[in-house]
Amino acid sequence: MHTISPWAATVHADLENSAVIWEKEFQNYTFQVFNAGDSIWIVVTWPNKGQMAFRPAFGMNSCFEVTNLFDDGQLLVINLQTRLGQYEVQISFPDDNAPLLHYTTSFKTNQPLMIPFWPRDIIPLTQNGSVENTNGKIYMNQIGARSGMLFASMTKPKTGSFFYFQDLGSMSAYCEATETSLAETVGGSWPEIGFKLPVLENKPLPSDQAYIISDAYVLFSADAAENEMQQTAQFLDNLAEVYRFLPHPEVEYHNWPEITENCLQDIFTNKGCWTQTKGIPYLNAYLCDYDTPAEIMVQLAILVPLDELKNWTCTETDPVYNDLLNGLDAFYDPQLKTVNRWLPQLKDDLDKSEEQKKEMVMDSWYLHHPLMNLARLALTGEKKAEELVLRSIEYAIKVAHHFDYQWPVFYKMDTLEVIKEETAPGKGGEKDVPGSYAHLMLLLYRLTNEKRYFNEAEKSVKKLIGQGFDIFYQANITAFSAGALLELYKITKKPEYLDLSYACLAGLFKNMQIWDCQYGYGKNYRNYFSIFPLNEAPYTAAYEEMEVYAALSEYLIQSESVEILPSLKILIPEFLKYAVSRLPYYYPTMLPEEMLSEDVKTGEIVKDLWIPLEDLYTGWEKSGQVGQEVYGAGLGFGVMTRQYHKVKDEDFLLFADYPLVNYKKSKNTVRFTVLGSDEFDCNFKILFPENSSKIKIEVFHNKKRIQTTAKSKFLLEYKITGDSIVEIAWQLN
Description:
This protein is an alpha+beta fold.
């Protein structure tokens, strides 16, 4: 039996003593609205007669009077008033083919009002009214400022599952007026779950306008997932179903070629980005941090996107690229027979302020990350990178075998002694590292064609089985894991690998902010569809976001020949589209001075440099508290090489914010496939340089000629759908 509050204890009795004011049968579910005095309830009855109540309006110690009820068959509008003010509840069913309930509530108070308490808005019901005797399983709920989601099933009585999504962006005006936050607002403990409006203790709700105080979508299912694989796949399908009907903010186009030039200039010329050891230049991790020894991950975090940019532009190697490449040898530790995190010759300079800043202490994911980047460089023909990764890989395999492919958080590199076993008591170690290790092994398999690396990958990913949403430890590592599992599936055709890749992706989308924060400092930049780097992280982070963006772009491209979940053809391209729109806001040049932190943990912030901040906060906290991360400076190169497409022998560029594949040029035509779902549009542009010759261009979308949505002397813009074929034809005027 669960302990419940007074606000839950009386719900069943209140409903029994209240009249139904509206009822609808839809998709074999029954929806009834009750006025229970101080609460308006929507009671949902499953086909098997299980019930759950949703509270769109709470009267705050005052009873509701229905002043008007309007129902046109598509939308129900209920106007209500109490002694405190006026409410409007709107109820609709946006999908004719799915049991999806949408309710929105606005409230206008009669006078400025403090709200010190608000109950959760979901209560399970039973036939005999014993709410406390129900049982349910909550698969996931909101953490911090992530999406306002809750996915659960009612197991006693055995009823089914539901996916709840509160569009938190709709309440931005409420939070702006009251200086409150929407973090940690969707959750609770069974049986009192759902959304809890931020309470007001310092600043009252003004009486100047009606404020939206709830905007919920609830998708119902008669089935409850029986295992973690079903849970994660069902979560992705549920999220995509709701996403179809959410309001989506406009994306903003940024001139990434110009951003790339600015970044290159600042990386190469600003002394705060660099330090020297024994005459060799190395990049600092953070701007103006000269005390911390150089890290190999930092050098490679810029080298790899520089290599991509070099190959994209087909230009000569920049001297800085060679400086960074030549500096890698010094990270090799001949005693350990592997590259080390820190320059071995500067081990005595570590300040021991953090666990990983102690000699020989390794963060598990960090061992593999530089090796992955070395392998990527090796695959493009860099012999020095190939030599280093092959000299280091036996150490990585030894560590994997020692820990039986289940890595702790920190361990000693020389003794393999565990320094920190779990992320939190009972939570285990870094659970996605088996996937990143598999990704590393598959890169080595591609490089050498040695089967033992493939076998290592298969052994490692078996440790991901049974983890479900808990696979996620660090966003970029989980994204690499998803790609490795997809690759294993394509090679072996074993369906469990594809299912495990879905579990990784579910962990990623669970940790995203799919709402538009337009209060506090969030008003100053695009933040819709961003991803948090760790489960408990209070901010989004530039480098991790960049790697997730790159990994998911590759996942979508590599899955073209695979029948993946249709929901992923919606969610992944939409994430990519919004990433391209909002990633520039990591650069402090794009942000107002007042939202930048005065206190910086590491180094300094120089606002006019095109070096990204590590941390962006939504809401009321200032950004840049961690520092300005030099190792994230490849952000622009990554977008440039993925979203822009050169046309051979022509001087114009193509841009699309969905991935393009099957690109073919024939004389004066280009043809390609746009990935994604035909339910959603992407932005396609043709960009001309200032001295471009005048040409006539026609664009055909699925064989039909389409018109521009906007055009200028240097730019043609179009809207094209995902899952389509586009052909461009041109001729000189």
